[in-house]
Design goal:
The chain is of the alpha/beta class. Among the domains are: 181 residues, tt1808, chain A (Alpha-Beta Complex); 128 residues, no CATH class; 169 residues, Arc Repressor Mutant, subunit A, CATH 1.10.10. Helix content is 51%, strand content 11%. The protein is built from 35 helices and 18 strands. The strands form four sheets. A seven-stranded mixed beta sheet has the order 1-2-3-5-6-7-4, with helices on both faces. Strand 13, helix 20 and strand 14 form a beta-alpha-beta unit. Helix 1 packs antiparallel against helix 2, helix 22 packs across helix 25 and helix 34 runs antiparallel to helix 35. InterPro entries: P-loop_NTPase.
């Protein structure tokens, strides 16, 4: 029986019970309205808030979380909503009931006030028998009292019209917006007009780099980024380029408390320790490495994607713990390029074990003599069995049956690998470690399955088992999934400082270039000679050792994801938005070249494209809108700022999303708008989101989100880029927002765009965490610098 069918049966029974029922407000709520909301309309208890306090008033029920969907005002059963004679259940004018008598008007006006104060869209009045449902707040310019209402005169009528009653008022129906659509006489919220990009031929276009820029792009892709992903990564690279985890950035725009507790806040009944610090790996981790095959539990490394779990493991096994692993073989099972199919995992593990044993010990686990040694007990048992007499009577027949027996054991490859390790441990005293790495590159379900497989390996194989997981997957599964039944050893890997990672990579590249005259693996026949490459690396080194603005940009936008930080460098190197020729010319002339921040910003924003495209850029458009609503231009920055404010005094910076939504709904934003921008913020890693027990959904801002709404939002290069991607609602302004290339024209266009946004801002700066007046102050300072720079550049060109 479906939930819908159960709900229908419950309403039918309740309708019979309710006939003749008379009770006070509390009794009405308990015996009628509560049952309708929970058992008929499917609202879960955690999404029903009773006696919500709003500006000195109390609403009987607020339905929905984090989006507050409806207000339900309960009246005692004896207080009916009078209607004119002949008015029955169905869609009616609100004025039909509201203006019929003073009692009706008072009840409706009370709940309307609640809706308009809290920004909740749907109002429901009920005395347990009757239901009046209407729009409590509107965004189409009409007064709510001029609209329509859904009216049910009794629970019997609601049952008779159950399909619509369910669609209008159930949790699923209100979330889908069926009631709002039924009551909205005018058109739904208008779609925004197309942005300037729709009028640009060939948008987003591509920049064709010069020969020099193409060569530098190879440098960025080959050396700065990809070398860290190679399985053949050298011990020299691990020694010179490894950065210890956990160092807190001095450039982060979010509090250090958030950075410190990024992984511990959500822990549930499990002890979580740091895997290491600047002094080296955690001693407990080293102890577990030695005792791993004895404790029968996997060792879990928690860390977000890109924080450096892989290089931490490689550095641990090959550099830090070499003396502990003197007689230990490490099987490094990398899931980076794995299919993501659970059925393929055993074969993947067996292949790594087989290849590693052959490489490290020259043992082939399917070699004849090795197999006979592994199954010596089975061979002796076979000799005592039914075919034993054939050993003398028919030796060839005996060998045939013996080989068939051994073949059956070897054909079970996964079990054969386990038996082989047991044999080697007992006969040669070899210890084993299996590292299941890059598991977090796959779905949450796959990660759970690999954990279960890792738990089985730890319990039944003679090996210590390391595995890497994402914190969100781990904590969610600890609450209700596959990990709930296990007690693993858990260590967290926090990201290193991105500027230190970049500087070490660049120094290593420079050393290689000086020692070998070229970089190993660098293609022949490039136009850039080693001296030019050296000069370029020196400029980058100086920038990331001294330029705090640049370091802050990369450090915050990467939010601890080392891969993203290196991607930004790779994107910058050889970008068409970088004055490469000027860099090399200045170095050749002995001048110090300082990389302008705007060059780095533009390289990240545009990539290989001629125009900014929010679908491809790693940096989203803060002022984008989903509806033709001018105030929506500010919803994403307000959302980020309110999430940060809500979590300021909470453990780990996590705040309740429902509180954030409630505050934004009071500013007039709809649930659809909130959901759209929340999804954007999560997808673009501007915020982190997690379900935590009875607290519902918790959220906190990331360094990328903080940097975007606090600093980058007023940067000229950013505003200049996102103009082409932002719908302009004012037709007059839209007609003047055109595709321009000259810097002076771009400055004028950006000024027009900011004035347009100022005209759309109708909030009180003093009460909100995102201040438009602060934005304007920062914008004026930034654009003044750009204007002076443009004037100096024009003067230089004129003097040539």
């Amino acid at each position: 029986m479906t939930t819908y069918e159960q709900a229908k049966d419950t309403l039918q029974a309740l309708a019979q019970v309710s006939r003749g029922f008379d009770g006070n407000e509390a009794t009405t709520r308990l015996q009628l309205i509560d049952v309708v909301l929970k058992d008929v309309l499917g609202w879960p208890q955690q999404e029903i808030v009773c006696e919500e306090h709003v500006d000195g008033e109390y609403l009987d029920y607020v339905l929905g979380s984090p989006v507050q969907r409806a207000v339900v005002e309960a009246k005692r059963t004896g207080r009916t909503f009078d209607a004119p004679a002949g008015v029955g259940s169905g869609i009616i004018d609100i004025s039909t009931i509201r203006s019929y008598n003073a009692s009706n008007k008072s009840a409706m006006d009370q709940v309307l006030k609640y809706c308009q104060t809290s920004g909740i869209g749907i109002a429901i009045l009920s005395n347990g028998h009757q239901y009046v449902c209407f729009l409590g707040s509107r965004s189409d310019g009409r007064r709510p009292t001029d609209g329509k209402a859904i009216y049910y005169t009794s629970l019997d009528d609601a049952f008779a019209d159950f399909p619509r009653f369910w669609d209008y008022c159930s949790r699923d129906g209100l979330t889908r917006g069926d009631l709002a659509r039924a009551l909205r006489s005018g058109p739904k919220a208008p779609a925004p007009p197309a942005p300037l990009s729709s009028r640009i031929h060939g948008y987003p276009g591509y920049r064709i780099g010069s020969e020099m820029e193409t060569d530098l792009r190879i440098l960025g892709d080959l050396f700065i980024q990809d070398v860290a992903r190679e399985e053949t990564i050298t011990d020299e690279f691990l020694t010179e380029c490894y950065c210890s985890s956990g160092a807190l950035s001095q450039y982060a725009v979010v509090s250090k408390e958030i950075l410190k507790s990024r992984y511990t806040t959500l822990s549930h009944q499990v002890n979580v320790e740091s895997a290491g610090d600047r002094k080296g790996p955690n001693p407990r981790l080293r102890d577990d490495l030695l005792a791993g095959a004895l404790i029968k539990r996997p060792i879990v490394l928690l860390g977000d994607v890109g924080v450096g779990k892989s290089i931490f493991l490689k550095h641990l096994f090959r550099i830090e713990a070499t003396e502990l692993l003197d007689k230990t073989i490490v099987f490094y099972v990398d899931f980076l390029k794995h299919s993501g199919l659970v059925d393929d995992v055993p074969q993947h593990v067996v292949s790594v074990i087989s290849d590693t044993l052959e490489e490290k010990t020259a043992i082939e686990i399917t070699q004849r003599e090795f197999v006979r040694s592994v199954y010596n007990k089975e061979i002796n048992s076979f000799k005592r069995g039914i075919y034993g007499s054939l050993q003398e009577d028919s030796p060839s027949e005996f060998r045939k049956h013996e080989l068939e027996m051994l073949a059956r054991h070897v054909s079970s490859e996964f079990e054969h690998a386990r038996r082989s390790l047991h044999f080697l441990q007992g006969s040669r005293g070899i210890s084993f470690v299996i590292a299941l790495d890059n598991v977090d590159q796959h779905s949450s379900g796959f990660q759970e399955q690999i954990f279960v497989a890792g738990q089985s390996l730890a319990e039944t194989w003679p090996t210590a088992v390391f595995m890497s997981l994402r914190p969100d997957t781990f904590h969610e599964s600890r609450r209700s999934g596959a990990l709930a039944a296990y007690q693993p050893r858990v260590f967290t890997v926090s990201p290193p400082r991105s500027d230190q990672v970049i500087v070490k990579r660049l120094r290593f590249a420079r050393k290689q270039l000086v020692e070998f005259g070229r970089m190993p693996g660098f293609p022949e026949g490039l136009t850039l000679n080693s001296a030019s490459l050296l000069a370029y690396i020196d400029v980058l080194l100086t920038a990331f050792e001294t330029n705090e603005e640049l370091i802050g940009l990369v450090d915050n936008l990467s939010s601890g994801n080392t891969r993203h930080a290196l991607d930004y460098i790779s994107t910058f190197v050889g970008s068409g938005y970088v004055q490469t020729a000027r860099i090399l010319k200045a170095h050749a002339e002995g001048d110090r070249y300082v990389i302008p921040l705007h060059e780095f910003v533009r390289a990240i924003l545009y990539g290989d494209r001629k125009y900014y495209d929010s679908r491809k850029s790693p940096v989203p458009n803060l002022f984008s809108i989903s509806q033709g609503d001018a105030k929506e231009h500010f919803l994403l920055p307000l959302l980020l700022a309110m999430i940060e404010r809500t979590g300021e005094r909470q453990p780990g910076g996590f705040g309740e999303l429902s509180l954030v939504y409630q505050n934004l709904q009071q500013l007039g934003y709809s649930g659809d708008q909130l959901d759209f921008h929340f999804a954007t913020a999560v997808e673009r890693r501007l915020i982190e989101s997690a379900e935590v027990g009875d607290s519902g959904r918790l959220v906190r801002i990331t360094p990328a989100g903080g940097y975007l709404y606090k600093i980058l939002v007023s940067n000229f290069a950013y505003v200049d880029a996102i103009i082409v991607d932002t719908p302009i609602l004012d037709p007059e302004v839209r007609s003047h927002i055109r595709d321009v290339q000259d810097i002076s024209d771009r400055i004028d266009r950006a000024g027009l765009f900011v004035r347009y946004l100022s005209a759309c801002w109708h909030f009180d700066d003093d009460t909100l965490p995102f201040s438009w007046s602060h934005f304007l102050g920062d914008w004026e300072r930034n654009v003044s610098l750009v204007r002076r720079g443009a004037e100096r550049a024009a003067a230089r060109r004129a003097s040539r």
